[in-house]
Design brief:
The structure is a homodimer. By secondary structure, chain A is mainly α. The first copy, chain A, contains 24 helices and six strands. In chain A, helix 8 packs across helix 10, helix 20 runs antiparallel to helix 21 and helix 20 packs across helix 24.
Amino acid sequence: MSDPLLLPELRGMLLENDAAGLKEFCEVLHPATAADNLAELSPTDFWKVLSCTNLNRQVEIFEYVGAGRQRQFVADVDRQHLTALLEEMAPDDRADLLESLDPDQLEALLPLIAQAERSEIRKLLSYPDDSAGSVMTTEYASLPEDITVREAINQLRLQAPNRETIYYVYVLDEGRRLRGFITLRKLILARPETLLSQIIERDVISVRVDDDRELVANKMARYDFIAIPVVDEQNRLVGIITHDDVLDVLQKEATEDVHRMGAVDPFDENYLEASFILIWRKRAAWLSCLFVAELLTYTALGRYEHAIKAVVVLSLFVPLCISTGGNSGSQAATLITRAMTLGQVKVSDWWRVVRHELAMGLALGLTLGCIGFLRGYFTSPEKLDGADRMTLAIVIAQSTATICLWGTLVGAVLPILFRRVGVDPAIASSPFVATFVDVTGIVIYFNVAYAHGLIT
Amino acid sequence: MSDPLLLPELRGMLLENDAAGLKEFCEVLHPATAADNLAELSPTDFWKVLSCTNLNRQVEIFEYVGAGRQRQFVADVDRQHLTALLEEMAPDDRADLLESLDPDQLEALLPLIAQAERSEIRKLLSYPDDSAGSVMTTEYASLPEDITVREAINQLRLQAPNRETIYYVYVLDEGRRLRGFITLRKLILARPETLLSQIIERDVISVRVDDDRELVANKMARYDFIAIPVVDEQNRLVGIITHDDVLDVLQKEATEDVHRMGAVDPFDENYLEASFILIWRKRAAWLSCLFVAELLTYTALGRYEHAIKAVVVLSLFVPLCISTGGNSGSQAATLITRAMTLGQVKVSDWWRVVRHELAMGLALGLTLGCIGFLRGYFTSPEKLDGADRMTLAIVIAQSTATICLWGTLVGAVLPILFRRVGVDPAIASSPFVATFVDVTGIVIYFNVAYAHGLIT
């Protein structure tokens, strides 16, 4: 996402060694814009440009560089520069970067970092990947409750330079337990001599450090906070998660879900920039699994070979019947998975979901069955091969209706089952459900044909 | 999402007409929590509880009630109360509510609302549904640039009560053109006598009022803003979009995309609460379309009926071959659609995408072809019916490879094509692509069989 005008200008300044110009480039643009363009440079040039500005600005820009490029740049800079940078970075961004490094690289770096930061890093790295702890930052603003508004604002001025946000301020007791919170807006509207304890909000909505980040995102979306406090099991404040991190979480989770639904092992990288081999692996793995599973359709169909030989027209309807199951199954799976992601459906709701989808599957099955009946009835005589037109129509109608109901139920139940056993329900995705229903659909279809005496 | 403890307590207080308790209920809880529980009440009870608190708090709670319930409550309250409420609501929330009403209801309400608000409403309602204008609010904080920091903070105190946020303040000239912006954090850190013009950020990143809301969400996610200014074609500030609205947009867009991918006409309602008929319509419409399209597989297969009669084993591999196309197609469609949503791929990148997917389709096709070859080769002799084992293996391998390549290309190109003609690329979803590739897959499969002389 580099700029077609800025990037050549940047390269020009590099060629001319225009330190003043490079400094201006770093300091005038929004750090995200600067980062977008600097990411196109070689590591050597990247660090050359960054060195033209102060460490603070370097950190701001570096934090906006994408994860993949960050890793590459980090591999190619002298240790001292890197250490200074790491010590200044926001704890959550730093933890993300360090987590993406090789263990060897990480172990070589850690001893160079100051003791205080080091234990901070180890702590943040210890939280599981999708937990609130892994996205929070420890740089929150906090105040005691027994001071006045005037003192509070003065203390905030001192804290401001290295806090992620000062718009939400948390009030803690001596044990760092969360007692309340107040917004900066309320602070500057209050009379300076008012005591904090009189005006703070005591009903604080927080998340636990081991909560899933998806739950955090849903809470933030519900309550419209700029930041949400993260507490441990003793209600001690351990960090905050800010609105921008939640936005990232939401985007990442949506990408993950969408990828899983499309039978791709999720990846974070930019589609056009990711490595071919990586993407091939992630796609081939799923496609091969589905292909192998789909081999079962051959086995299932093989059992009815004699029936096909007797009434060839039956084989012509096979793709129609099984795709009906696939489509209705992926529809139900999609709806339930999304509703679970949004927190609308919980595992305990399974019985309501089943009842609902049973009725829906019947209604949808009837709809498709009617169309199927018409198609079966108007099969051209030379294709019928002696089979009875009406019987064929009834077989097609009943099969599509049954398979549609079956697909809908499977699609609804699988995601709940997956969530129940702790697997991401998005895995019970369209292609997965479709493959499963393809095989069973064949069995249903031929059994309906037997039942109506179309084959013997 | 009502609380199993709070709701019975609330009902109890209502029975006892405990006005003081109801007032406390409204004022102590977070308005979102209060709204979650109040939404379970009948309209009469809902308004009875709300009346126990002041108008400001009523508005705060009402804004958190879901769209569907809001509509029901609004239909059952006296006009005067409703008018007072509407006049106090945030312009963006109010516009959302009014937009969801029947045109008759809306026209009956508008004359009761004060003139100034009314023209505001008409303006916000005039922006197209998915535009920045439709999600922005007009209640932003703004300042002239020729005042001091002290004066600025004093002016902000006056503006604060009815501004959505005062953490980002926009600096405008006399023509309301956007000249710069400053954060409250920077303001309270600056020396009181400093002139605003000396410290404001002049490189303001903004969006246009007719920009797509998806673009707004991507910009906010990139730049980590709390709010982004919305300007018209003359760079005049017309509103702001805040972080919480962007979070909602992102969630809604993700739901829309996921639903489309699963062949459901998107809907906003809670899955468990939405009306059966509504959901049936949204699901049946798509399933029927796909079913009718899938009827073409019968027609396609029908053309090869004589071939199936001659070599029945061929028909046993049909589901395998066509599902290969469906899976590889939905995989590619998913990846490209998501990359377009995230702004990573633009229509102008189509050639890069095609080249990329051509290579990927070949690699994936080879992978599946190898598995297909083995399966074809180990077909049990009694199924072969005189067909040559090696020829069959080659036909299966070549068909799956070709169909996989074809599916990948179709899946990659269709979303780009859809976006190019202004249709949401998510419509080119898995089931849509799968159905298309199913039909063409049959043709490819039998033509490969002809080419190798397996059928004549």
